[in-house]
């Protein structure tokens, strides 16, 4: 077996393990996002949306649908890698993988691939749920696919980095609670940035989630609050930066070796 085949086998093994991990407990990993998003559609989309009317030239329900889908993808891809990678580190399984003749980028790709797979599965489920409440039409299929993939990769990498630095399971929940949730809710899921004063629009430009939801919504509705090329560039830049940081941490063994 040549080295490329060996590396691919290692990647496939890690990816398969990660996919089996979240599909085996699908009641805990795939069902809750569907229930949560159903409640969002009922409360914000149906009850509140009737009073708000249109936003961005479409009904409020149509406006928030892309943001809710993206929110589910972000949360799922992040939590999958954060919990799985930390569990492997906590149980000392990761040390065997690190010393194996497998490049570190293969290890990262395997775990991130598992997070992306869960993010895409949850995104698909939430999209199907959304169809019960609103007619969804996609104007730019390629842009939607690229955006959801880059977002899942970015937050899967963020989950891995969180797991590297985490000392206990409590540390895994700190970032989603105090960082991820505020960024998501302030990322334009439920409102258009054009409604904000100029100062707060400038502050919102510092939130990376804004760019992801902006491009994703444009792919569905053709409506964007910010430049689409800039938003894609920001996502790519964060992916490259997080990948580089994750590779540096794992190659140096930071937070992994006792």
Folded structure, characterized:
Pfam families: ABC2_membrane (PF01061). It is found in: Cell inner membrane; Membrane. Keywords: Cell membrane, Membrane, Transmembrane, Transmembrane helix, Transport. InterPro entries: ABC-2_transport_permease, ABC2_TM, ABC2_TM_bact-type, ABC_2_transport. It is a multi-pass membrane protein. The chain is mainly α and 258 residues long. The protein has one domain. Helix content is 78%, strand content 2%. The protein is built from 11 helices and 2 strands; from the N terminus they run H-H-H-E-E-H-H-H-H-H-H-H-H. It has helices at residues 3-24, 26-29, 31-52, 60-90, 93-99, 104-130, 141-165, 169-185, 198-204, 208-221, 228-252, and strands at residues 54-55, 58-59. Strands 1-2 form a two-stranded antiparallel ribbon. Helix 3 crosses helix 6. The protein starts with a helix and ends in a 6-residue tail after the last helix. The mean pLDDT is 89.
């Amino acid at each position: 077996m040549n080295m490329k085949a060996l590396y691919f086998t290692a990647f496939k093994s890690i990816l398969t393990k990660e996919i089996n991990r979240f599909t085996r407990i699908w009641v805990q990993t795939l069902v809750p996002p569907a229930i949560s998003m159903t409640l969002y559609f009922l409360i914000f989309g149906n009850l509140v949306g009737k009073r708000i009317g249109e936003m961005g030239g479409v009904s409020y329900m149509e406006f928030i649908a892309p943001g809710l889908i993206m929110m589910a993808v972000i949360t799922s891809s992040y939590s999958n890698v954060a919990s799985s990678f930390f569990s492997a580190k906590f149980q000392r399984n990761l040390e065997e993988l690190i010393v194996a003749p497998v490049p570190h980028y293969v290890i990262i790709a395997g775990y991130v691939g598992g997070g992306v797979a869960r993010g895409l599965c949850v995104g698909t489920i939430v999209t199907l749920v959304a169809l019960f409440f609103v007619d969804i039409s996609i104007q730019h299929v390629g842009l939607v696919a690229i955006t959801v993939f880059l977002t899942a990769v970015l937050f899967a990498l963020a989950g891995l980095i969180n797991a590297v630095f985490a000392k206990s399971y409590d540390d895994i929940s700190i970032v989603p609670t105090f960082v991820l949730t505020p960024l998501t809710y302030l990322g334009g899921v439920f409102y258009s940035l054009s409604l904000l004063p100029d100062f707060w629009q400038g502050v919102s430009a510092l939130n990376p989630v804004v760019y992801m939801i902006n491009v994703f919504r444009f792919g569905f509705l053709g409506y964007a609050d910010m430049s689409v090329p800039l938003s894609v560039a920001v996502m790519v830049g964060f992916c490259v930066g997080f990948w580089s940081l994750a590779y540096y941490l794992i190659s140096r063994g930071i937070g992994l070796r006792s």
